[in-house]
Amino acid sequence: MADDFELDTDDLSRRMDGAINALRTEFASLRTGRASGSMLEPIQVDAYGQMTPVNQLGTVNVPEPRMVTINVWDKAMVNKVEKAIRESGLGINPQTNGTIIMLPIPELNEQRRKELTKVAASYAENARVAVRNLRRDGMDQIKKAKSEGISEDDVKFWESEVQDMTDKYIKLVDQTLEGKQAEIMQV
């Protein structure tokens, strides 16, 4: 008998937390009309023969709500960093002053805001899918234990535990999405 079966809910919870953290990271890269150093994280610069993130080539600061500055450490890299930002698709026109690159963040128009809310919704749906996949993994473990002989009561208990955890994380994804969409639509 496999009556000593116990689902590792801590592992399941940790993995679902990972899906939420990945969602928050994706949301941080969405430009909402306010300056944020995290919007530069996806940008890679061809430096010293390899692709390097911008934040490893200089100090990223947000001195004003609509301005990001990068103080590039190596003067030879300034033009490469500037070029990488122009080609990144962020829609920002960098201005250089010596080794400091200033990135004025333009206002978002209504159409762009709506597009960004759709992008945010797709990120949230990916997170929901990840949580549901983890739910399926948990349910598969329960089915396997059921075939090994755990009681029907234990099966129902663990299935409800996994479902409750899934519902909690799906609700968290929805709340995170609502917050991000409100932030994007804020003028």
TrEMBL record:
Localisation: Cytoplasm
Source organism, top-level taxon: Bacteria
GO MF annotation list: ribosomal large subunit binding
Coiled coil: none
Principal location: cytoplasm
InterPro entries: Ribosome_recyc_fac (IPR002661), Ribosome_recyc_fac_dom (IPR023584), RRF_sf (IPR036191)
Keyword Nucleus recorded: no
HAMAP family with a match to the protein in the record: RRF
PANTHER family linked: MITOCHONDRIAL RIBOSOME RECYCLING FACTOR PSEUDO 1, RIBOSOME RECYCLING FACTOR
Protein name: Ribosome-recycling factor
Organism: Pseudotabrizicola alkalilacus
